Amino acid sequence: MSASCGCPATSSSWVEFKPSPAGVRRSCRRFLCASAGLPSSIGQEAPMMMAQHGQADGAASGSSLALGEALAATSDFAACFDVLGLSATDSGFNAVACRHFIEGHGQADDYERHTLEGAASALLAEGAFRRGWPVEPYALGRSRPFCWTTSEWPGEQGGLARHAMARLAAAGIEGGVSMSVRGPIQRATLVTGFCTVSGLSAFAGDGLDRWQVAVSRFHARLCEVLSPEIRVPDLSRRECEILHLTASGLTAMAVARELEVAEATVKFHLAGIRKKLGVSKTSVAVAKFQALIGLAI
Fold it and tell me: What Cα–Cα distance (Å) separates residue 194 from each residue in 7, 66, 148, 215?
């Protein structure tokens, strides 16, 4: 698997993922299963049953909507991450790691969790490994998710990076998909989903787009949960959602597919957004939207 398949190192401690109460997990799985027309009892077997029923395409779109509903029901970082963890499993990842922080504010404002176990979990708690692991610094400089393996990866290729990747491989990690999302007042979210090399094939085609939407929605909800006073009165909830998805790098066509609306509808909303914000370009509208949110905090 090539590092170009297109498909911040700190010493702060990672917090191991602890499952939410059973009721919350059942609720999240009900969202995922109901969206695919499957019984909620299927639980973690939903992806297999979706394939058996030939419902993969519809399930992907339905799961995206279900993810939004599940995230809307959360009220803190731990609950948001619980939902992301279920979405990661549904997407084909073996584990997921997340760091949410305000750039330039130091580690005191960091929120971190992961679902790794054993030696891999211990690595993420080790400062020396974090300083050498090349994936996160590279992700911070990109707006799109990317695939990597412990034998081929983009970014830094020096001795520290090679040593970090060798240690990750020794801990049983073969590869993954990493990405970052930036939002208001320099808030950033780094997410890495871990899987086998063969598992990366699931992210060919529009697989990366679907995962990008999931992480972008997770990031947007974190910003709301951690800063509930954020408001942009002149924009509707749908307009804000379109702006968040557009800011993540998706085209109008990709946004339309994820929201299950016509592309013309998305373009109509974008035109209205530009008019409300008094700008002529969508990129400027996104930047102004983020600035307005920052000023509101």
Answer: 15, 22, 10, 14
